[in-house]
Design goal:
alpha/beta; Rossmann fold; Alpha-Beta Plaits; 2 domains; 5-stranded parallel β-sheet; 11 strands; 18% strand; diguanylate cyclase; Diguanylate_Cyclase; EC 2.7.7.65; CheY-like_superfamily; phosphoprotein
C-alpha cells in the first residue's frame, strides 16, 4: 500500500541537492518546503508544521544536531531523517539519540533509496498519530534500537531490516483498542497478572468486573455496524469516566469489556459496576430513525482469592456475567 502524501521540510545548504531532491519528492505527490540554513529551517518548522524533516548535519549557521534537538523535543510525531556527507558512526548514533528516525549518507547515487526511507518514515508518522499511547513503548524501543545500531550502523542492509522489524512490532504491541479508547485484551492479560502478584505480595484486595452488552448482535442486525460501533465507543467513554485513575479498563473482545480494580473489595467493585450499568442504560441512542433507544448491560463482579490462577479469576467473573444474563439481563451479579 502506498504511503499517504506528506508535507516535507528539506534542509540543506547545497542548492543543487535542494532542487534535485525537492523536485523528486514533489513528483511523488508530496508538498516540499526548502530551507538552506538552520534558522530558516526552525522558522519554517514552527510556521508550517511539516510531517517529515530531511535535515543536513552541516549548515552554515546552526548545528544540524541543535536543529534536530529542537524539533524532536517539541513534537515526537514529526518524522526526522538526517542526511550527511560524512556518514561517521558517531554522527549517526548522536543523530539517532537526538530523535532522528534514519540516517542517510550523501551523495545519493540512487534517489529510490531516499524514497524508501521517506516512505517508511511517513508510514511511521501516521502510525504514531493513530495511537498516541505508543509513546511510552516507542521510547523504550528507541533506546533498545540505538544500542543495536551501535553494532549494525556500518551494515546498511541490516539496519533497514531492523527498522522494518521494529515497525511490525509497533503494530503488534499496540496497547489500545482504537474504537473505544480502552486497553486491548493483549494488554489485559499482562496487566492483570501484575495486579494479582501485587495483591498477593501486599495482601490487598483485587476485584474484576466483566461487562457484556445485552442483545448486541440484534442491535447490529437492526441498525447496522456503524450504529453498533457508536454503542461500543460510548460504553468505552463512560467506563473511563466512572472508574478511578488506579483502575484500568479493557475491550476484552467484541461487545465484552473488563475492568481491573486494584485495592478494591468486592462490594465496592459491585457499586462501581452498578453505576456503570444504570448510567449507561439512562443514555439514549438515536440510530437511523429510532427514537431514544436504550441499551442494557449484564455485569459479573468477583474478587481475587489468594492462591488461585488468573484464569480462575477471569472465569469466575465471566460466569457471574452469564448468570446476570440468565437473571434477565440489565443486572449485576457479584459472587
Amino acid at each position: 500500500m502506498s504511503p499517504q502524501k506528506a508535507r516535507i521540510l528539506l534542509v540543506d545548504d547545497e542548492p543543487t541537492l535542494l532542487e534535485l531532491l525537492g523536485d523528486f519528492l514533489r513528483e511523488q505527490g508530496h508538498e516540499v518546503i526548502l530551507a538552506d540554513t538552520g534558522t530558516k529551517a526552525l522558522d519554517l518548522y514552527n510556521s508550517e508544521l511539516p510531517d517529515l524533516v530531511l535535515l543536513d548535519l552541516k549548515l552554515p549557521d546552526l548545528s544540524g544536531l541543535d536543529v534536530l534537538k529542537h524539533i524532536s523535543s517539541r513534537d515526537d510525531e514529526t518524522g526526522l531523517i538526517v542526511i550527511s556527507g560524512v556518514g561517521s558512526t558517531d554522527d549517526a548514533i548522536e543523530s539517532l539519540r537526538r530523535g532522528a528516525w534514519d540516517f542517510l549518507v550523501k551523495p545519493f547515487l540512487n534517489l529510490e533509496f531516499v524514497l524508501h526511507s521517506v516512505n517508511k518514515s511517513i508510514e511511521k508518522v501516521h502510525l504514531k498519530r493513530e495511537n498516541r499511547l505508543y509513546r511510552e513503548h516507542l521510547e523504550e524501543e528507541v533506546q533498545r534500537r540505538t544500542a543495536e545500531l551501535r553494532q549494525e550502523i556500518i551494515a546498511r542492509k541490516r539496519i533497514e531490516e531492523d527498522l522494518r522489524r521494529s515497525e511490525m512490532r509497533y503494530k503488534e504491541l499496540s496497547l489500545t483498542d482504537e474504537l473505544t479508547g480502552l486497553y486491548n485484551a493483549r494488554h489485559f492479560f499482562r496487566q492483570v497478572q501484575a495486579e494479582v502478584e501485587r495483591a498477593t505480595r501486599y495482601n490487598s484486595p483485587l476485584s474484576l468486573c466483566v461487562i457484556d452488552i445485552d442483545k448486541f448482535k440484534r442491535y447490529n442486525d437492526t441498525y447496522g455496524h456503524l450504529c453498533g460501533d457508536a454503542v461500543l465507543a460510548e460504553l468505552g467513554r463512560l467506563i473511563q469516566k466512572l472508574i478511578r485513575d488506579a483502575d484500568s479498563a479493557y475491550r476484552y473482545g467484541g461487545e465484552e469489556f473488563i475492568i481491573v480494580l486494584p485495592e478494591t473489595p468486592r462490594e465496592e467493585a459491585a457499586r462501581v459496576a452498578e453505576r456503570i450499568r444504570t448510567t449507561f442504560f439512562e443514555h439514549s441512542f438515536y440510530p437511523k430513525n429510532a427514537q431514544g433507544v436504550h441499551v442494557s448491560l449484564s455485569l459479573g463482579v468477583t474478587s481475587y482469592c489468594p492462591g488461585e490462577s488468573v484464569s480462575d479469576l477471569v472465569d469466575r467473573a465471566d460466569q457471574n456475567m452469564y448468570a446476570a444474563k440468565k437473571c434477565g439481563r440489565n443486572t449485576t451479579v457479584c459472587k
